[in-house]
Design a protein that fits this description.
Length: 462
């Protein structure tokens, strides 16, 4: 059919929306992706480091969810690879330990599973949790205070906080239960009377199936494949969105100063942008949704990629998560919240590649450093945690300002309010990491759903 659709935002959600719109509306539709930066892909970026292609944004997708795997299959992309099976570790209580199995983001189905991470007193607190007063949820609950009340500080700080910090770059004390541990909340709603019982209901035995997957030559291949469905315009800022008859007017500006762009008219619009941009663009058309987006806070982070000579020895693990209170032997706090030993995790040959992740919500300290300073402190952390003291062949610093939304208490209700308000506006849909998860499959799913919503509207109006 002939229709004009504008997708605002060229990250994975926006590109997935454009791809699905092309499939649903056919070759006659005019689909434009408007991206204010100089490239599409959002938090997907593959760079050259020491002659090797390497992801410095999201590095993989969760294999048990189908959304990204389905897109890869639709695009005919090959070279899907999985981790080697090397275990992950956590730096807890000044010791590096394997992350225990049998937990849901650190909540144990059986207290014995976490015995090696805790002191005797800490383990006793966890063992006692099932015998505390029955737990009943009344709406959402602040995750950190709930865990500290039921389990104590040790399990919370040594295991749950590092695991959630690796996902959201935030603190367990600032997150809500329902948005970050939905299966646990659902088990409590269904009658579980403790967190331990809830975990026992949702934790499943390991199947041997790989947890993650990625593309051998980097996720930029996925970006290129999805972007082919649309007319992609980078360096284009959408300054205003307003109704124009049965369609929409988008006031455009160039990211580079001194360049004027004409307005764009569209029959339908998908907004796949971070919360601050969504707040601004929705203010005049769906003020309820705009106000809800204004409540979402964002965490900034950086990835420091290091390439070492072949033969450089790494621990025989896939990486290490680092708790917020952990310190080096010299007393300095660790700057990193995680290292991925990519050479070990993915079985890569060639240069020995390592990723250091830096930055937690509310703690911008290390992010204030220059790139060279950041490389130095990350190398010092790596020397302490992995024993690697060799100089790198190459280093890349990728900063992600405002990269991760924080799923605070009440986030699921906030998102329901956004989607309810937008659903009452024909020809408009929203997508992105603010809504239903920050991982690649979750973001792609919101783009797919947004595309189906606006396509249904357009096809019904024929």
């Amino acid at each position: 059919m002939t229709a004009d659709v504008a997708v605002v935002g060229g990250g994975i959600a926006g590109l997935a929306a454009a791809h699905r719109l092309r499939a649903l509306l056919g070759p006659g539709a005019r689909i434009v992706v408007l991206e204010q930066s100089d490239r599409v892909g959002g938090k997907l970026r593959t760079v050259d480091i020491a002659g090797t292609r390497f992801d410095v944004g999201a590095e993989a997708w969760l294999n048990r969810r189908p959304e990204v795997a389905d897109l890869v299959a639709e695009l005919g992309l090959g070279g899907v690879v999985h981790p080697t099976g090397a275990r992950s570790t956590v730096r807890a209580g000044a010791t590096t330990r394997p992350i225990p199995g049998g937990t849901m983001l650190g909540l144990p189905a059986d207290p014995a599973a976490v015995a090696d991470v805790l002191s005797a007193d800490g383990l006793r607190r966890v063992e006692a949790e099932a015998g505390l007063r029955p737990l009943r949820l009344d709406g959402d609950a602040p995750l950190g205070p709930l865990l500290r009340e039921r389990y104590g500080d040790e399990l919370t700080d040594r295991l749950v906080d590092p695991l959630l910090g690796g996902v959201y770059a935030g603190s367990v004390d600032g997150l809500g239960l329902r948005a970050t541990m939905a299966p646990i909340a659902a088990a409590l709603d269904a009658g579980a009377t403790s967190l331990t019982e809830a975990a026992a209901r949702v934790v499943r035995p390991a199947t041997g199936e790989p947890v993650f997957a990625t593309l051998e030559t980097g996720l930029s291949g996925l970006v290129r494949g999805l972007a082919a469905a649309a007319d992609v315009r980078t360096g284009t800022v959408v300054r205003e969105l307003e109704r124009s008859g049965a369609g929409w007017r988008l006031a455009l500006g160039a990211a580079a100063p001194g360049h004027a762009l004409p307005d764009l008219r569209a029959d339908a619009v998908v907004l796949a942008v971070p919360a601050p941009s969504a707040r601004k663009l929705l203010a005049g058309v769906v003020p309820e949704a705009s106000a809800a987006y204004a409540r979402v806070q964002l965490a900034s982070m950086a990835v420091v990629a290091l390439a070492f000579p072949e033969g450089t020895e790494l621990p025989g693990t896939s990486g290490v998560l680092v708790g917020a209170g952990e310190r080096r032997a010299d007393g300095a706090p660790f700057a990193v919240k995680a290292f991925t030993y990519s050479a070990t995790k993915w079985g890569r040959g060639g240069p020995v590649l390592v990723r250091g992740s830096v930055g937690r919500f509310g703690d911008p300290g290390a992010l204030r450093l220059t790139d060279d300073e950041l490389v130095r402190v990350v190398r010092a952390d790596l020397a302490e945690l992995a024993g690697v003291t060799a100089g790198p062949l190459d280093a890349v610093v990728q900063r992600w300002g405002g990269g991760l939304p924080q799923y605070a208490v009440g986030h699921t209700d906030l998102v329901a309010g956004i989607e309810r308000a937008v659903a009452a506006t024909p020809g408009l849909a929203v997508a992105g990491a603010t809504l239903h998860g920050v991982g690649l499959p979750a973001c792609a799913a919101t783009g797919d759903a947004a595309a189906r919503r606006v396509a249904a509207h357009l096809l019904a109006a024929r």
